[in-house]
Amino acid sequence: xxxxxxxxxxxxxxxxxxxxxxxxxxxxxxxxxxxxxxxxxxxxxxxxxxxxxxxxxxxxxxxxxxxxxxxxxxxxxxxxxxxxxxxxxxxxxxxxxxxxxxxxxxxxxxxxxxxxxxxxxxxxxxxxxxxxxxxxxxxxxxxxxxxxxxxxxxxxxxxxxxxxxxxxxxxxxxxxxxxxxxxxxxxxxxxxxxxxxxxxxxxxxxxxxxxxxxxxxxxxxxxxxxxxxxxxxxxxxxxxxxxxxxxxxxxxxxxxxxxxxxxxxxxxxxxxxxxxxxxxxxxxxxxxxxxxxxxxxxxxxxxxxxxxxxxxxxxxxxxxxxxxxxxxxxxxxxxxxxxxxxxxxxxxxxxxxxxxxxxxxxxxxxxxxxxxxxxxxxxxxxxxxxxxxxxxxxxxxxxxxxxxxxx
Length: 407
Hints:
By secondary structure, the chain is an all-alpha fold. It folds into two domains: 192 residues, MFS general substrate transporter like domains (Growth Hormone, Chain: A), CATH 1.20.1250; 199 residues, Up-down Bundle (Growth Hormone, Chain: A). Helices cover 82% and strands 0% of the residues. The protein is built from 14 helices and no strands. It starts with 7 loop residues before the first helix and ends in a 12-residue tail after the last helix. About 1% of the residues have low confidence. This is MFS transporter.
């Protein structure tokens, strides 16, 4: 898998991704501490609003900025987005009111909503060989999972010697280092698309999704992933400390089980996709996720003691593995369903549509979970996951061939 790093352009871009992810992880920790410093007991409200703003920016801003910048070269676009993110990170330690956090978070996440799909759309041109591209996707999945484990530990270690405001400096360094690596990377030639009306550019990615059976299937799988991700991210701490009465370290252990399952699958994905088609792998995960979440519901409701804890750890690991069977190969579908001309729009559409699913399931998992309990809200998420699986299997029929990309 690491052989793909022999490509110097990809090696630099992958390094930029890792550094930016670590910077973002430090930012998340520092932002929570800043919110508490400003709002005290209402810090949860501030963070909840900030995360909602993040999702709204991801859903609404990404297609618009992609349409507005469709004819701009990718390299200066990525550099500019990184510099904006660094500028916002510099400003955050100086805020004194919650509304200032909200404005800066919107600017930061709007820049991320521009950077991420544009970055992802460049990689297929850097790695035209599908085998190499698949290995790059596995590395990317590993990077995301490792960041979720490493960033909190790094932040905790740094907080023993510096104040939380200084964590923002680490974020600034991360974004500036990412921009520097992009600057020194040699980009392949990517033809500038011909002029087109703004509405045509704005809807280009969504039209590509509608035209492709694979991508319509991916839309259903996005909904499945959103259900399990919401349950894990929003309710793991509530489950471990609230329902089970276990210590904070067990929250980290349970999240590590989820991340570990995801990483194991990501490591084996290139060989798996050499022997099995994407549809079989991804739909297996799409069907397994609601089943595993249903099993977790039963364990939460009826099991107890050590057996319950061990069972939940195993289930969280399996849920992470099933989620990775969808997330790791998904960009292969985007690559096949796009052309050089519309690829940024297709990746932006995936970025926006997948986060629209999170915008539904995250509030459900949090608000409904507090109102009716974890077992009941898990059943609701199971129902949504089953709906997503039905959409995916219906839209992505086995006899379908790969359609020509929508121009």
